[in-house]
């Protein structure tokens, strides 16, 4: 396979990963990213199923393939985690074997090894912790205590039982269909760490994402300095005349041509540069989005619920209701129930009028993510007095 084909393959792989990372994000609703995500996750699998059916393989084989696809992409499994770790390891190996020996160079000093080692070590520790940590799984032992961590706001979260786990559902929790379990302060299920992101591992996930964004941008910069160094060592940096056989005369070597010649000699570095450059925008945007919503005091799961509240406000069914005790609560009252509801109320016309019960201010929200509270131990039953 030629170098160009390999680079193109890496570029496509990087774009595929970027689309998988950014596609489900509401920030990209109605954009090319969302359409690309739909093609990758819906259109192409559907096409594969149809093609299988047309091949005459029979319903049994098609059902088996469907089962395998569901097991691979709809259930918790390490497939994409292996892809992620493999890509990471390949990139790190190229960096350590081909770029590291040329740092320092005439563009970067030896002190860069301090931030390089610190960022890599933090990133790896955060990744392992995010993958291995308990995200805040709700089980029979802790369900009751977990329900006391956050109050029910009766707008996004109500007291109810998870139909699958058959356990009380704490406020801010979500049932993860991939892991078949409820998770406290659920952010989302991340296929790249093969774990849910929730109350107890969001900090590791954010640490991993932020340092990965730094690694992509900083790594691309460092690799670029090594490519420039290699260009210099090959004597291609200065003004140079080269023989152009087609024109039959000497022509000046352009900067672009000299870079291409250098990259032709250092293919692995070129591939690493392509991969980092393609991934960097996706990782940086996703990290910024996750940090932003964590600071604003909601999770990815709750963002979807807030969008539903915004839609209900547009439908004119959200009200500030005066409860019998005198307190005011925000409620959704469907049109057919409004006539029968005797409580005094005023209509809500904008999402700004609805307070987020879980917002503790930027620093309070970050503190909650960085130092999540351990649930209070379940109240112990009173010991029965011994019979006399
Ligand atoms: Zn559940
Ligand atoms: Zn999960």
Describe the protein's architecture and organization.
There is one protein chain. The chain has 388 residues and is mostly helical. It contains 12 helices and 11 strands. It has helices at 3-22, 32-54, 58-73, 79-99, 113-132, 143-146, 202-233, 255-265, 267-296, 300-314, 335-338, 361-370; strands at 160-161, 168-169, 174-176, 181-183, 188-190, 195-197, 241-244, 249-252, 318-322, 328-332, 345-347. The strands form 5 sheets. It has a 3-stranded antiparallel β-sheet with strand order 10-9-11. A two-stranded antiparallel sheet has the order 1-2. The chain has a two-stranded antiparallel sheet with strand order 3-4. Strand 7 and strand 8 (249-252) form a beta hairpin. Helix 7 crosses helix 8. The model has no long low-confidence stretch (mean pLDDT 87). One zinc ion binds at residues 162, 164-165, 175, 181-182. One zinc ion (ZN) binds next to loops. The chain crosses the membrane at residues 6-23, 79-97, 109-130, 204-228, 269-289.
């Amino acid at each position: 396979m030629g170098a160009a084909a390999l680079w193109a393959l890496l570029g496509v792989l990087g774009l595929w990963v970027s689309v998988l990372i950014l596609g489900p994000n509401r920030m990209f609703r109605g954009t090319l990213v969302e359409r690309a995500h739909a093609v990758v996750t819906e259109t192409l699998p559907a096409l594969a199923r149809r093609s299988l059916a047309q091949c005459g393989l029979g319903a049994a084989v098609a059902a088996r393939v469907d089962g395998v696809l569901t097991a691979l992409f709809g259930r918790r499994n390490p497939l994409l985690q292996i892809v992620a770790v493999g890509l990471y390891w390949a990139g790190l190996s190229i960096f350590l074997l081909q770029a590291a020996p040329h740092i320092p160079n005439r563009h970067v000093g030896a002190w860069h090894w301090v931030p390089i080692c610190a960022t890599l070590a933090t990133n790896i520790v955060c990744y392992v912790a995010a993958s291995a940590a308990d995200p805040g799984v709700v089980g029979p032992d802790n369900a009751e205590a977990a329900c006391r961590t956050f109050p029910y706001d009766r707008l996004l979260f109500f007291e109810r039982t998870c139909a699958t786990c058959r356990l009380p559902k704490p406020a801010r929790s979500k049932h993860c269909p991939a892991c078949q379990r409820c998770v406290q302060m659920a952010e989302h299920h991340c296929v790249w760490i093969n774990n849910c992101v929730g109350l107890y591992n969001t900090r590791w996930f954010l640490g991993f994402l932020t340092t990965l964004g730094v690694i992509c941008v900083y790594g691309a910069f460092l690799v670029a300095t090594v490519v420039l160094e290699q260009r210099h060592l090959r004597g291609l940096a200065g003004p140079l005349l080269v023989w152009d056989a087609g024109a039959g005369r000497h022509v000046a070597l352009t900067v672009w041509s000299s870079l291409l010649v250098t990259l032709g000699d250092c293919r692995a570095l070129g591939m690493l540069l392509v991969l980092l450059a393609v991934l960097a925008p996706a990782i940086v945007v996703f990290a910024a989005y996750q940090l932003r919503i964590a600071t604003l005091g909601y999770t990815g799961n709750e963002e979807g619920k807030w969008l539903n509240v915004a839609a209900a406000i547009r439908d004119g069914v959200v009200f500030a209701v005066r409860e019998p005790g005198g307190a005011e609560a925000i409620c959704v009252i469907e049109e057919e129930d409004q006539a029968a509801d005797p409580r005094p109320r005023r209509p809500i016309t904008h999402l700004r009028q609805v307070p987020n019960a879980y917002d503790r201010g930027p620093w309070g929200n970050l503190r909650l993510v960085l130092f999540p509270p351990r649930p209070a131990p379940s109240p112990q039953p009173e010991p029965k007095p011994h019979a006399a």
